[in-house]
Amino acid sequence: MTAGLNLIIAYSYNRETLSQYFNDVDTYANKYTMLDPGHPRHNLRIGGTWELPFGRGRQFLSNAPKAVDFILGGWATSHFFTFRSGDLLFFNQADVSGDPTKNVPAGDAFNPAVFSTSPAYEIRTNPWYYESLRGPKLWNSTQPW
């Protein structure tokens, strides 16, 4: 703690896999595929407090009367900031006619025109996810007021 300032920072990088059946054929063959569960890769948390320098024993108003110290002294402010990268976007079984990361319409995360509904009983061949397609990031900052 320096001059009433206290700060803590935490960062984690998440890279994990889980085993799951890719399609019905793999289920009957008991063949697992290692897949990313889709959790955010980057997680950053920053928190801090600042004890305001007013009141008895502080930089300003250190000789203030008790009534003034009671009202103005001993205050602190806290701030928290969170950043988290987006979750992977998972896709159900579909016929894919192109790359969903190309020609993305404005305001969309991917190009939905490359996906169409698969006929009944068709074996899944499209991937569960595309590594570069992630959901929205989380930016969260709290203010003391």
Count of spatially separate domains: 1
Count of DSSP-assigned helices: 2
- Main β sheet profile: 4 strands, antiparallel
The Cα radius of gyration reads: 26 Å
The separation of the N and C termini measures: 23 Å
Secondary structure elements and pairings:
Blueprint: E1 5-13, E2 18-21, H1 24-29, E3 32-35, E4 42-51, H2 66-72, E5 76-84, E6 88-90, E7 95-96, E8 115-116, E9 129-134, E10 138-142
What can you see in these coordinates?
By secondary structure, the chain is mainly beta. The chain has one domain. The protein contains 2 helices and 10 strands. It has helices spanning 24-29, 66-72; strands at residues 5-13, 18-21, 32-35, 42-51, 76-84, 88-90, 95-96, 115-116, 129-134, 138-142. The chain starts with a strand and ends with a strand.
Summarize this structure briefly.
This protein is mainly beta and 145 residues long.
